[in-house]
Design goal:
The complex is a heterodimer of chains A (113) and B (111). Chain A has 113 residues and is mainly beta. Chain A is built from no helices and eleven strands. Chain A has strands at 4-7, 10-13, 19-25, 31-37, 43-51, 54-57, 64-66, 76-78, 87-94, 102-104, 108-112. In chain A, the strands form two sheets. In chain A, strands 2, 4, 5, 6, 9, 10 and 11 form a seven-stranded mixed sheet that branches. The termini of chain A are far apart. With 111 residues, chain B is mainly β. Chain B has no helices and nine strands. Helices cover 0% and strands 47% of the residues of chain B. The chains are: A mainly beta (113), B mainly beta (111).
């Protein structure tokens, strides 16, 4: 099945620990995105990558880091520098050369205790 | 990208048409109007997009005013499963664009 996998669905970490969220896709899409969503709020862009080995900061990149070593994978690390990391994290992809339809994964709900 | 304004919430009776408005008065000539929706605790889903002509697909219709300063998403026969947050987004049609999601409109379809 083609799609976007985010694992795990729920993640718990202690304050001060770094944590890496996984995002894998087999859609062969060039662009990948990470969003954060807080309760009752819209999505905010953290980082995005339009091509392998390249990525750009979004609106709220502080305290986060990413890598894009493979087309299929775009992991997000939430570092201890992120002041309020508890949130719902969504990964998305977009094909190139077409219109702006983003495809979203099921999300990871991160809770920092 | 142009900013959009949507009402925070709307209600609709099941089986009736749901008309969701969006204002984008600063839209530029090369910006498209996109609609996505997000059902609770899931990732958003693309619905439809348009530039200046009205558009229709199996999910919805998009009506864009002649001056392009506002648009309306129409769900012709709303069902309970259409209860979701609907986002109106304006974006330049460029490959790999970044989308800016506002707070959207919470549509509640009532039985």
């Amino acid at each position: 099945d083609g799609g976007i996998t985010q694992s795990p669905k729920y993640l718990f970490r202690k304050e001060g620990q770094n944590v890496t969220l996984s995002c894998e896709q087999n859609l062969n899409h060039d662009a990948m995105y990470w969003y954060r969503q807080d309760p009752g709020q819209g999505l905010r862009l953290i980082y995005y990558s339009q091509i392998v080995n390249d990525f750009q900061k979004g609106d709220i990149a502080e305290g986060y880091s990413v890598s894009r070593e493979k087309k299929e994978s775009f992991p997000l690390t939430v570092t201890s520098a992120q002041k309020n990391p508890t949130a719902f994290y969504l990964c998305a992809t977009m094909t190139s050369g077409g219109y702006n339809e983003q495809f979203f994964g099921p999300g990871t709900r991160l809770t920092v205790l | 990208d142009a900013k959009t304004t949507q009402p925070p919430s709307m209600d609709c009776a099941e089986g009736r048409a749901a008309n969701l408005p969006c204002n984008h008065s600063t839209i530029s000539g090369n910006e498209y109007v996109y609609w996505y929706r997000q059902i609770h605790s899931q990732g958003p889903q693309y619905i439809i997009h348009g530039l200046k002509n009205n558009e229709t697909n199996e999910m919805a219709s998009l009506i864009i005013t002649e001056d392009r300063k506002s648009s309306t998403l129409i769900l012709p026969h709303a069902t309970l499963r259409d209860t979701a947050v609907y986002y109106c987004i304006v974006v330049v049609e460029t490959s790999g664009s970044r989308l800016t999601f506002g707070e959207g409109t919470q549509l509640t379809v009532n039985p």
